[in-house]
Amino acid sequence: MKIAMIGDLHYPSIVLNRPEVVKARDAFFDYVLSAFLETEADYHIAIGDMANAGELVEFDYIFSKVESCGNRVRFIHIMGNHDTYTHDKAAILAATGLKPYERIETEQATLIMLDTARETVTDWSGFMEEEQLTWLEANLSEPSDKPLLVFAHHPIYGTTARSTEAMMSLHEAVQLRRILNKHTGVGFYFNGHNHINSIVREQDWYFVQTAAMLDIPAFRLITVEDGQVSVELIKFDDRNVKEWAHIVSRHMPYFEPFPEAEGDALSSNVSARKGSSFGGHQG
To answer: Which of 36, 44, 153, 171 has the most neighbouring CB atoms within 10 Å?
Structure first.
């Protein structure tokens, strides 16, 4: 099984109204979304902050790209804090037809999609209501040695890079770690939010954080086969793509380029199964 996953996309409907900026935005997002969606995978997942200001026109742009792929692409969007800047979750879900959180069971792995976004622009930390936590615990009640892949926008506090900074993680009061530790096999927790690549291991759990697309034009390719989970960082090395990203990221609201987005030497790739040694390395 293969899963293609993008970090914070931040597609902006509004940029500085200059021809070169608008042209760079259109060229950049057309290129990276087309390449991402053309990648052969069983699922294509956006890990949150897909929209920059949460405008419905931003979602419309992205979903029009998805719909042009027909049934070939099974697309899943995880809710991020920027996605709720303008409209509440109910309006976004009605427009996209997606679920706030869900479980997908496959032969190779169990996939869990979580909603950690708040509906406010003043607090961009993550939170989960008791209803969702109860649902998650029920879905992890049966022992399983299959890999568990969890997708959420916010990191768990104290895991990946920057996750101990103010409002840069799921709130510490949310007991997500306790629930996830009920899983008996290898587990991977994928998140965005902090705009820096980072991979951290805690026993049989691997926390994989992906930078914003405008900082590091790239996506993750996750492969699961016979209990082995491999994660690669697939970069767009075209010079034009980097130039477009540079122009757009400096002429749009609600986004500041993060200079250390590349992360450390263990932040690109990892390969693991239950009980294996840490396999991260520079891509």
So the answer is: 153
- What confidence tens digit (pLDDT) does each residue in 78-122 have? 999 999 999 999 999 999 998 999 999 999 999 999 999 999 999
Residue 238 token pair = 């075209």
CB burial of 214-230 (b: ≥16 within 10 Å; e: otherwise) equals bbbbbbbbbebeebbbb
Please identify which residue in the block is written with the tokens 């990221």. 249
Cβ neighbors of 13 (< 8 A, separation 6 or more) are 52, 53, 55, 57, 58, 61
pLDDT in tens, 250-262: 999 999 999 999 9
pLDDT mean over 239-256: 98
Packed helices 56-67 and 89-96: angle between N→C axes, nearest 10 degrees: 30
**Widest pairwise Cα distance in the chain:** 56
Please tell me the distance from the alpha carbon of residue 123 to that of residue 126, in angstroms, as a whole number: 8
Smallest CA-to-CA distance from 158 within 117, 197, 207 is with: 207
Pairing of strands 2-6, 43-46: parallel
For the question of whether the overall pTM of this predicted structure is more than 0.70, the answer is yes
Q: What is the DSSP string of 52-100?
A: SS--HHHHHHHHHHHHTTGGG--EEE---TGGGSSS-HHHHHHHH---S
Which residue(s) pair with 208 in the sheet? 190, 199
The runs of H, that is alpha helices, within 105-200 are 130-139, 176-180
